[in-house]
Amino acid sequence: MKNIRNFCIIAHIDHGKSTLADRLLDFTGSVTEREKQDQLLDNMDLERERGITIKSHAIQMEYQYEGETYVLNLIDTPGHVDFSYEVSRSIAACEGALLVVDAAQSVQAQTISNLYLALENDLEIIPVLNKVDLPSANPEEVTDDIVDLLGCAPEEVIPASAKTGVGIEEILKAVIERVPAPEGSSDSPLQALVFDSVYNPFRGVETYFRVLNGEIKKGQKIKFMATGKSYFADEIGTLKLVQHPKPIIKTGDVGYLITGIKDAREVKVGDTITLNDTPAESAIEGFEDVKPMVFAGIYPVDTEDFEELRSSMEKLQLNDASLVFTPESSAALGFGFRCGFLGMLHMEIVQERLEREFNMTVITTVPNVSYHAFTTKNTNDHIIVNNPSDLPDPSTLDRVEEPYIKATIITKSDFVGNVMSLCIDKRGQITNQTYLTTERVELTFDMPLAEIVFDFYDRLKTVSKGYASFDYTPIGMRVSKLVRVDILLNAQPVDALSALVHFDNAQTIGKKMCEKLKELIPRQQFDIPIQAAIGSKIISRETIKALRKDVTAKCYGGDISRKRKLLEKQKKGKKRMRQVGNVEIPQQAFMAVLKLND
Amino acid sequence: MVAALAKEITLRRSELQGQQVETIYFGGGTPSVLEVDEVVQLISVIQTNYQLVDNPEITLEANPDDLSEDYIIALAKSPVNRLSIGIQSFFETDLRLMNRSHTAEQAVSSIKCATRYFDNISVDLIYGIPGMDDDQWQSNIEKAVSFGLPHISSYALTVEPKTALKKFIAEKLIPEIDDEQAERQFHLLVAQLGEVGYVNYETSNFGKPGFFSKNNTAYWQGKSYLGIGPSAHSFDGEKRGWNLRNNIKYMQALAADKLPITYETLSRTDRYNEYVMTGLRTIWGVSLQKVEHEFGKTYGAYLHRQAIKYIEQKLLFWDGDILLATKKGKFLVDGIASDLFMVNLS
């Protein structure tokens, strides 16, 4: 146990975490030339394409240092706020963390939030100043920022470049010398922390764990304490680039477990694995059931594909346990599902995976957060509102509560004013303002989560010219004055276009919705009025004028083929539109609210 | 180029399989750059290699500035018996805006001269031009009518990508094309020409009885045609072919005795779609009987069902078993045709 080191890398997005992991694998000879591939640890296609880590993974390296062989378990962490719970569990499986800071961009919001997570778990922090090779690098100043943040000595900060390999040896040395060896008792009952799981279509769910106390042996009957389910440990082993089956995983070490579980929902990140017959007295602290934050309807483009969509979603759920869905129906869109996601990125990922892996093109409706509604009949028990149409009639409504978050934004002092106006515009209340340096300010706001869902990131980037980083944590429900804005096309309400918004914003949003829809809905052979309404009160109106000219001037020998193909394409496009009354609505209109400010 | 054209005509002699050639049309681009004897030469190559009907319609498209009196006299002596003159407008400002090489004066003089030697003349006029008001348009129509010509083609100005006009509009030097103006001017045109005996036999074509373009009508009625020259399209009832666009590559191919053509075979659905698309543009409409006979009952039933909505909106109507566009529907037939199309989503 004294030669084991468990550590993770924490960093703001794009600060070079995955590249540094690749370098460490290289340097310790954990990867053969043939296996080399950029960003080895991110193995979903989507991750590699987007250059971000969505799911965390772990890998074991062996390293000779001063005559001894050390086992280094690197646990990679996801780099997006949508997945902060998974980050926290990965961190809990470690004794140390490499805090990677980009030498040009310095400390950012995620650097800080991840650092706090690591400190809460008593991790030894090894600061790494990455990308020192960049021409724009500012090593002295950024080192000062890190020293300020951690209260460490400047010498403790390791200058490195994951790209050129500078500093890699020093990092490994620091991991061995500074990260404490795991503590734990091999005689105690088994307690192993699940920090990740991956779905393998052939072998079922692979569970990644870290043994805190006791040992786990192949063939033992084990139990997941949160779910209460027992399985046999069919195979256990350590995670190299490929899996190495082992008869035993000892105290302090990291490994994988295969039990033949076929449904990812049975393995929950943060759960504790113990032995069925001699269980531990208590589970490892910190387990949470991950709750979806954002909800949206997902509908098949062709209404006939509903069953196929259902089976695709079920398959997707097997390896994405945080995806939840229930069937719903819409007058405009037919049968579909109300889906819960961890956040907007998660939603996009699900949509993309449905397209790529299952060849399912879907219509996604306006996302919303989960509200609590209280009726006058029963002012104590809430009704969960995950869909605008679930909001009780205003006449029976006592109050509505909406989820709030604590938002942390770090920006340059030049942009404080812009960022503040944006946050106030988004119903935020400033709770703190700290100058990290004379240049860099940390702002904290209490804000409704719903405001983050709609175009917040993009606007933050714009108002700060890219110099703002953002992170958030949920802080509970608060009473809010919410109304449902309905959209009527040709006097017919389109349920899938309804949105829950704050009363003060309803007028503006209704107006912008009408304007956006006017842009997105093609002109048809008749005038189409677009109205936004709260209840029966119309708050905004636009008209899509009827088509006046829709005919090709010349249609001779050489034009016929081309024109036919063009009109066929148009027909196919129309078939993908949804018809409400006699109005044809293109798919992108259903997401229009997200892009109101474009 | 003329040699290459002659070669293509010769190489494809067997394609018509004994069918007689009813029309010859020199068009697309500016065929009036050809010397008259070149035109004559090409016609004689056709005569040598193909069977022609008696008195075939032979049309030449010409720009007013190419039509000198000498040229017209020479043409009149050739087998060419129909002229299509690219007038476009009798207003100098319109011609400049559309970047035409001829002047308003040449427009008038070319017609005057042509009428002395030819009976069968068509001119084309453009409407919906930015800045052209309805009075101006009206006087363009009146002017064209005043020459007593048997045929007028008239097109709504279309802004094609990668043209100077497109660029000028993008840079706001010229106002955007106004669909309402185009629609208004189209209806003015139909009404005015109708009054003096022209039949609007296709969206953009107006002719006195007996003077409809036989050549162009063939396209809309699904007849076979051989297209000779770069970018020209051909159709044999089942296959459509198109030649290489690039002049040099076209000539190189023929120099190597190769036909510069690519074919696609039209499926039953493709042919149905083309029939609907072209039919709705013409006074002959879409015949339900023909659809059922040529494409099958399923197509007939589908057409009938898809048309209901447009009949309710008074954009289409049935005249017996013929489906036609109403006055109101005429200017919207593309979208309507598209909706009547049969397509497989896959």
User: Which fold does the CATH topology of the largest domain in chain B refer to?
Assistant: Transcription Regulator spoIIAA
Let me know the number of strands of chain A: 34
Q: Identify the strand order in the major beta sheet of chain B.
A: 1-2-3-4-5-7-6
Indicate the multimeric state: heterodimer
Summed up, the domain count of chain B is 2
CATH architectural type of the largest domain in chain B: 2-Layer Sandwich
Low-confidence stretches of chain A: 51-56
Structural class designation of chain A:
alpha+beta
Terminus-to-terminus distance of chain B: 43 Å
Instruction: Give the neighbour order of strands across the main sheet of chain A.
Output: 11-10-16-7-8-15-12-13
Give the integer mean of the pLDDT values of chain A: 88
Structural class of the helix and strand makeup of chain B? alpha/beta
Low-confidence stretches of chain B: none
User: What fraction of residues of chain B sit in β-strands?
Assistant: 15-25%
Q: What percentage of residues of chain A falls in helices of 4 or more residues?
A: 10-25%
Please state the CA-atom Rg of chain A, rounded to the nearest Å. Answer: 27 Å
* Biggest sheet features of chain A: 8 strands, antiparallel
User: Biggest interface, which chains?
Assistant: A-B, 27 and 50 residues
Give the tally of β-strands of chain B.
13
* Relative strand content of chain A: 25-35%
Question: How do the helices and strands follow one another from N- to C-terminus of chain B?
Answer: HEHEHEHHEHEHHEEHEEHEHEHHEEH
